[in-house]
Amino acid sequence: MNILDDIEKFKKLDPSGTLDSIQAFPKQLEHAWKQSQKIIPPAEFKKAKNVIVTGMGGSALGGRITKSLFENEIKIPFFINTEYQLPGFVNSETLVIVASYSGNTEETLSSFNHAKKAKAMIFGITTNGKLGEEIKAGLPGFIFQPKYNFLGYPKTGIGYSLGTLLSVLSKMELINLTSKQFFQGLNEFKKIQKNFLAETPFRQNSAKKKALYLQGKIGVFVASEHLKGAAWAARNQINENAHSHALLFDLPEMNHHLVEAFTNPIKAKPLLAYLFLSSPDYFSRLNAHYQVSQQILKKIKSPNQQYQTKCQDKLAQAFEIIQLGGFISFYLSVLNNQDPGPEPWIIYLKKHLAAYEKKD
Q: Of 49, 59, 141, 185, which residue is most buried, by most CB within 10 angstroms?
């Protein structure tokens, strides 16, 4: 039996239920959308001159994915902030969406305080914590219930971060996305999700095949346009769930610098495994970039493969790439014979950052 078809091994390596949370991604999206559609945002939010989504890690992914999906449609500047401070242009005409899964992320709470000082319009998205207390005290926002994130970590709650943000922005009329469009995309994605599931055997499972391809390698994801944010989410999941290094580049920008670095250092070349995420909806000229880039990698004998999206709808394609990354990350963890759930170095980091704070 192929190790990636051994369901019993999955259970032993994953006692905290990481796989269940990854598989529940479509349920998370649906639950998040339905919960947050009850929100009535302040009317003035619709008049914002620019929008900033501020958050860290998994909590920022909803913003990144949304920005990529709607970049050619959003009529006002839309920014992602992953810093302690906000840009200098923030003022009373800026809408700052503060996203923190736990509600206690120190960088996000710091930028929240900056937003208050700048008298910006503020909307919070969280499950609890200090940000949750602000919402309970009157800050416009939404406290979501992550029913289908069984692991409980932000890394396996992407459906909530994304689904809630899409719903909130649609209610604010800042993106053009109706419930009908959302569920059309979600239902299309659900039909292809079976290609990634644990019970789907290796020979028919795209995620298992890509995990084997990336085993022992540094994955280099390449994406464009509406899939850049989804590819970012795929990369992050490999970092956190597979505890493995992965990189992300976008075309055509990649071909204006990285192409000259394909061959050096020589010892790194066999360790870099390129995965091109292709969509029929990319700008037509990008097809040439994808083909020629892969030709170059083939010429220099550098590992490269392509994944062609199976969904037709752009929103469904983003869901597909996010889910592909989630399952790849789990199967990589299995191949590495490790538990995908714990985050020992993140815990170490937070503990020691807290200690430095006390010294200061």
A: 59
The C-alpha atoms of residue 150 and residue 211 are separated, in whole angstroms, by 23
Range from 103-107, 322-326, 344-348 carrying the lowest mean pLDDT: 344-348
Q: Which long-range contacts (CB under 8 A, 24 or more apart) does 140-144 make?
A: 140/41, 140/42, 140/45, 141/98, 142/35, 142/36, 142/39, 142/168, 144/32, 144/35, 144/36
Question: Residue type for 223, please?
Answer: A
Residue 154 phi, psi (nearest 5)? -55, -30
What is the pLDDT averaged over residues 63-68? 98
Distance CA 278, CA 231 (A): 11
Residue at which a domain ends, from 177, 209, 226: 177
Q: Enter the tokens of residue 350.
A: 């937070």
Record the pTM. 0.96
Same domain? 21 vs 165: yes
pLDDT of the residue at 355: 85
Q: Residue 46 and residue 123: Cα distance in Å, rounded? A: 12
- The structure tokens 């004998």 sit at 301
Element (H, E) at 214: helix 206-214
- The H or E element containing residue 87 is none
pLDDT of 358: 55
120, part of any domain: yes
User: Domain range holding 60?
Assistant: 17-177
Average pLDDT on 51-79 reads 96
Domain count within the chain: 2
Q: Are residues 321 and 234 in contact, defined by beta-carbon separation less than 8 angstroms?
A: yes
The CATH number of the domain holding residue 325 is 3.40.50.10490
- N- to C-terminal Cα separation, the chain: 56
Give domain status of residue 183, yes or no: no
Judgement on whether residues 202 and 163 belong to the same structural domain of the protein: no
Residues 318 and 284 in one domain: yes
